[in-house]
Amino acid sequence: MHHFISYKQRGEWVELLFMAQAAMHGYHVLKPSGDSLPYDVGIEQRGGLLRVQVKSSSHRKGSGYVGRFRRGNGNSRGGVQRYDCSEVDLFALYLLQPQIWYLIPAEKVLEPTPKLQIRLYPDAPPRPGRRKPDHDYECYREAWGLLTKSREEL
Fold first, then answer.
1. What is the pLDDT of residue 143?
2. Is the peptide bond preceding residue 112 cis, with omega within 30 degrees of 0?
3. Residue 21 lies in a domain
4. How does pLDDT run across 58-111, given as a tens digit for each residue?
5. Is residue 37 part of a domain?
6. Where in the sequence is the domain holding 121, given as residue range(s)?
């Protein structure tokens, strides 16, 4: 496991991993300058731009991992800052220990009610009655094909 001085440093490293993986899958990757935009990476396709927010997690809870969807480090004075579908099209969430990517359309996490966190279960088979279908994100594991979709298609 890699050791980082801060979560920001780890986040920058994960963004580089995402950009490399996306490029290996044949996508055109764009990196905005600075930290002022609500997304980390742009994927250019068909003259459009898919806005990707990159996240990572190593936090285990029970048989799953917790993925968090809040801006910054969560220490803002105005409370938790949430993402909005008008700002982000796709979340790329990297689970560090199993080295697995989840590419999840922002709408699946942010609408109708924005989730601040989800659970992912890459190691556990689905158990009837334990997970609601709208809380099962396994269909987004390594879903690199979603990067060909437009905002409307996601």
1. 97
2. yes
3. yes
4. 888 887 899 999 886 555 555 678 899 999 999 999 999 899 999 999 999 999
5. yes
6. 7-148
On average, the pLDDT of the chain sits at 87
CA Rg value for the chain: 15
| Residue that the structure tokens 């004075």 belong to | 77
Tell me the pLDDT tens digit for each residue of 39-62: 999 999 888 999 999 999 988 888
117 forms bridges with which residues in the sheet? 68
DSSP 83: P
Q: Give all strands of the β-sheet with 100-105 in edge-to-edge order.
A: 28-30, 41-45, 48-57, 90-95, 100-105
Give the domain CATH number at 128. Answer: 3.40.1350.10
In tens, the pLDDT along 107-144 reads 999 999 889 999 998 887 666 655 555 568 999 999 99
> What are the DSSP calls for 85-128, one per residue?
TTT-SEEEEEETTTTEEEEEEHHHHHSSS--SEEEE-SSS---T
- Rounded CA-CA distance 4/7 in Å is 7
Q: Please tell me the total count of domains within the chain.
A: 1
Q: Under a CB-based contact definition with an 8 Å cutoff, are residues 89 and 52 in contact?
A: yes
Q: Is residue 12 part of a domain?
A: yes
Inside any domain, residue 66: yes
